[in-house]
Write a structure and sequence with these properties.
Length: 579
């Protein structure tokens, strides 16, 4: 093969790949530029998940006409005056890569006007080339329009998911900046509809209300560290959920370091540790945590997307975060103990009080639970034969409210109750879709459910599959409320809104399965299955085992984890040196 030097456009595209992974990356970079420009209003508009159009308009400082072209040169930035500045970065951007990267991956039109100029200037890039430039009437600020993203890069397009899924990523990005900058007014329009509107009042609770809905925002508690952090050069603020408002994933632990959203496992765990055992197992908190450290202690220059950061005093910072969460929750429970008459604020769309929740989990003999175990009919003998690989099992008891001990003809079995029930429900839900007869239960009255922008995008993406499983839901008004009219029977009797958001959280994590119907069936199964920690009666154990025996693939849960361990009599005898 002959060696050849890449054309500037080819080289730019390769470099751009690091910065611009998907439409949401473009939105992120453009919002960061607007924030660095001191904007107080930022509007984001996307069409077809950002592939057809992304437009970000701000009222910031603008770009002087003679610098407009320069802004699109690689490594051109106004944010680092000298090398030394790299040691103390206070702007969101600094690498001078975003605009050239975007122009390499799409057609870009920019119109910008500095406030003291009479008119603005417009510049159009197509296929990486500046093709038009000239004066343009415009309000002060900058507007960037990106069209046909990845159109000339089929390889990139393959990694982009459905428009609804990409719109969901975009909603997540905008939500993060709305939480990070409560003083900035954000509007996000997806395909013409307002998906998010943060008022820019400067009150973090208003921003949280825009992202999570007013009821949940009202339940959040202000994070107040006990120790004097000034002396440590650390500032900490935020809003955290009380321990009875939980989530199925860690996606709603939002961390901001010097106003930059960051991904940091240790910090996330430090927040969770602050709840010290007050969370139900497998549940995660919702928290918005703002941390400020001297800029020279933070290195955001680890990766082009700048989401990973290195901290100089990591151990100390982790301790500060954990202790502040702990102290805040301790004050909260003290306040609740003093005033037992006032019920704790609840988020009906997420989780009720701890007590009702436990009662619900223990309420196993309820008709809803029974119905999930009853055989779904069909050709039972055929099914039994297919499941014949599973020996006939006799339940003996339960261990740790986690496992069922059962006797088999060849020895004994330990069955993971949750995994086994997941398998049973998963096959039943798939069968119901196949027969177009979901086991659905109408609600007495339609229930309004407030969904976050991220959840709304998921609902839009999976609406058909959710309906096929027995959900009857439709948008109700314009501000993210959906009306729920019926639910799958397997989850009937739970708080409908809370159950739906939990299902959506689970669904978001089902990335491993290709088929959307399977993803929905698996998340619904995980959501509806008995949990670890639930005590089962003998009858319930027997029912679960019989239902498992009837499964087509009884030995693994829908995600491929084992449902049971088999200890053969031979092995037991050898262990006890009977042989
Ligand atoms: P960086 O943000 O790392 O400096 P970019 O490629 O994103 O690099 O932007 C290049 C330069 O263009 C910025 O440094 C800034 O001077 C200017 N710029 C980009 N977007 C805006 C905007 N919305 N308002 C004002 N100036 C902007
Ligand atoms: Mg930038």
């Amino acid at each position: 093969m002959t060696i050849r030097v890449l054309s500037p456009l080819e080289a730019a595209r390769i470099a751009a790949g690091e910065v611009i992974e998907r439409p949401a990356s473009v939105v992120k970079e453009l919002i960061e530029n607007s924030l660095d420009a001191g904007a107080s209003r930022i509007s984001v508009e996307v069409r077809e998940g950002g592939l057809a159009l992304i437009r970000v308009v701000d009222d910031g400082c603008g770009i002087p006409p003679h610098e407009l072209r320069l802004a699109f040169e690689r490594h051109a930035t106004s944010k680092l005056a000298s090398e030394a500045d790299l040691q103390r970065i206070e702007t969101l951007g600094f690498r001078g890569e975003a605009l050239p990267s975007i122009a390499a991956a799409a057609d870009v039109e920019i119109v910008s006007r500095v406030p003291d100029s009479m008119e603005g200037r417009r510049l159009l890039f197509e296929a990486g080339e500046a093709v038009e430039e000239g004066p343009e009437a415009s309000p002060p600020g900058t507007s960037v329009t990106v069209r046909g993203l990845f159109r000339r890069q089929p390889a990139r397009l393959k990694f982009v998911r459905s428009p609804a899924a990409e719109a969901g990523h975009i909603a997540t990005v905008v939500s993060r900046y709305a939480l990070a900058y409560p003083e900035v007014q954000f509007t996000l329009r997806i395909d013409g509809r307002v998906a998010l509107q943060a008022p820019g009042t400067g009150d973090p609770r208003d921003a949280a209300a825009a992202v999570y809905g007013p009821r949940l925002a009202g339940a959040l508690v202000t994070l107040r560290p006990e120790a004097d952090l000034d002396a440590l050069g650390i500032a900490l603020a935020g809003l955290i959920a009380p321990p009875d408002v939980t989530r199925a994933s860690r996606a709603d632990v939002s961390l901001f370091l010097n106003r930059r959203w960051v991904r940091n496992r240790s910090l996330t765990f430090a927040v969770e540790e602050g709840y010290q055992g007050q969370l139900l197992s497998g549940r995660h908190p919702l928290a918005i945590v703002h941390l400020r450290l001297p800029p020279d202690e933070v290195d955001p220059n680890v990766h082009p997307t700048k989401a990973e950061v290195r901290l100089r005093r990591e151990r100390e910072v982790l301790g500060v975060v954990r202790d502040a969460v702990r102290a805040t929750l301790a004050r909260l429970s003290a306040a609740r103990a003093v005033a037992p008459a006032t019920p704790p604020p609840q988020d009906p769309a997420s989780v009720g009080s701890g007590d009702t929740r436990k009662r619900e989990e223990l309420r196993l003999a309820s008709p809803a639970y029974q119905s999930t175990l009853a055989p779904s009919g069909g050709d039972e003998t055929a099914r039994r034969e297919a499941g014949a690989r599973l020996p006939v099992l006799r339940p003996v008891g339960q261990v740790g409210a986690l496992y069922i001990v059962a006797e088999s003809p060849e020895g004994m079995c330990l069955i993971d109750q949750h995994a086994a029930h997941e398998r049973v429900l998963y096959e039943r839900f798939l069968d119901a879709v196949e027969r177009k007869r979901p086991d659905s239960q109408p609600l007495l009255a339609p229930e309004p459910v407030e969904l976050t922008a991220r959840h709304r995008a998921l609902v839009a993406e999976y609406l058909d599959e959710l309906r096929a499983q027995g959900y009857d839901l439709e948008p109700f008004g314009d501000d993210g409320v959906w009306a729920l009219r019926a639910l799958p029977s397997a989850v009937a009797g739970r708080d409908a809104g809370r159950s739906l958001t939990e299902l959506l959280d689970l669904l978001e994590r089902e990335e491993g399965m290709d088929d959307r119907r399977h993803r929905v069936a698996a998340s619904l199964a995980c959501h509806a299955a008995v949990r670890a920690g639930q005590t089962l009666s003998d009858a319930e154990m027997r029912e679960l085992i019989e239902a498992l025996e009837a499964c087509r693939m009884p030995r693994t849960c829908p995600h491929g984890r084992p449902t049971m361990l088999h200890l053969r009599s031979d092995d037991l005898a050898r262990e006890f040196r009977r042989r």
